[in-house]
Amino acid sequence: MGPERFQRKVKQRVADNFDQSYRIYQDFEEKHHFFYDLTVQLAEKIGLQPGSRVLDVGCGNGISALALHEQFSCQVMGLDLSARMVAAGQALHVSNQEVCLVLGDGEQLAEIVGDQRYDYVLYNASIFIFPDVERSLREAAACLLPGGKIAFSFYPHLTNPAGDDLFAVAFQRLEEPLPRFRVITDYQKASSALGQYCHHVCHHQWIRPFDLEFLRDFFSIPAQSASLFPGRDYEARRELVGKLFSTLKDVASQASIVWRFAEGTKA
Ligand SMILES: C[S@@+](CC[C@H](N)C(=O)[O-])C[C@H]1O[C@@H](n2cnc3c(N)ncnc32)[C@H](O)[C@@H]1O
Q: Once rounded to an integer, what is the mean pLDDT over residues 71-89?
């Protein structure tokens, strides 16, 4: 299969997974307020200026867009591959003139934004699902005003003080194979692509306590569970997610969940 066909297939799978996720995603957010807080962390770490114009790539049901608008008075244009996530977001934000959410591919930004230009292009918990990150970041840089920034938050890293990958520990204890691809694009690759189109790339972290209930709920979102147990049906994945994190009870008090962020500035 050629690379373009492979990328189209991956994106179709991603859209289907998030189409199946929108209700559980909303329930998860109501309980944990997580994607909202992650967006605020991302914005604070990069020193986002209040009142900015932001393009939110992979906006889902608009939680990141809403956080940027409510906490930083931003005007936000969000786009997402999943029709159901976008529709759920449009229903939630129907009365908000400053937040606009549309269906679209974050690897084809030029088609969507036309000649609009932004102060920031942000990817909150989305860039690691993009198969062609170089293309997306090249287009993101073209949408930026001079001096604007691109930034992303990444998939969680579970670790202990010795630096072990606790996903690997948990899969070993569960006697299940560690998935070959927990993410489609890894942090290193996304960061080097950012460096191709931006200067001053820098990195930040948000370290949260290791909360087993949070992890179980987070990875019970259908799209997230697919990254851990691909090829199984949802009920089987949910059951395995519960068992997977139960194996880590004894290490929980020493462990943490690390959320990584990267930012770059357009020349
Ligand atoms: C974990 S959700 C994050 C949503 C939102 N940013 C938030 O903070 O709640 C990731 C989103 O990225 C979207 N996504 C993945 N690949 C995409 C692409 N190529 N173009 C647009 N959206 C994409 C998914 O459909 C999903 O809604």
A: 97
CB of residue 80 inside a 6 A radius of ligand 1: yes
159: left (phi over 0), alpha (psi -120 to 50) or beta: beta
Q: Do the strands 144-153 and 256-265 form a parallel or antiparallel pair, or are they unpaired?
A: antiparallel
Q: Tell me which residue has its CA closest to atom 26 in ligand 1.
A: 60
Phi then psi for residue 44, to 5 deg, are -65, -40
Q: How far is the CA of 149 from the centre of ligand 1 (A)?
A: 19
Ligand 1 pocket, residue 107 CB under 6 Å: yes
Q: Can you name the residues that pair with 264 across neighbouring β-strands? A: 150
DSSP 196-256: HH-EEEEEEEEEEE--HHHHHHHHHSHHHHHHHSTTS-HHHHHHHHHHHHHTTGGGGGG-E
Residue with tokens 């908000």, as numbered in its chain: 96
35 lines ligand 1 (CB under 6 A): yes
What is the whole-number distance in angstroms between the Cα of residue 60 and the centre of ligand 1? 5
Q: Which atom in ligand 1 lies closest to the alpha carbon of residue 21?
A: 27
| Domains defined for the chain, CATH in brackets | 3-157+183-209+256-265 (3.40.50.150)
Quick one: angle between helices 63-72 and 83-92, nearest 10? 40
> Which of 49, 225, 186 is closest to 122 using CA atoms?
49
Contact 210, 257 (CB under 8 A): yes
pLDDT digits (tens, 9 = 90+) for 205-254: 999 999 999 999 999 999 999 999 998 999 999 999 999 999 999 999 99
8 Å CB contact between 264 and 197: yes
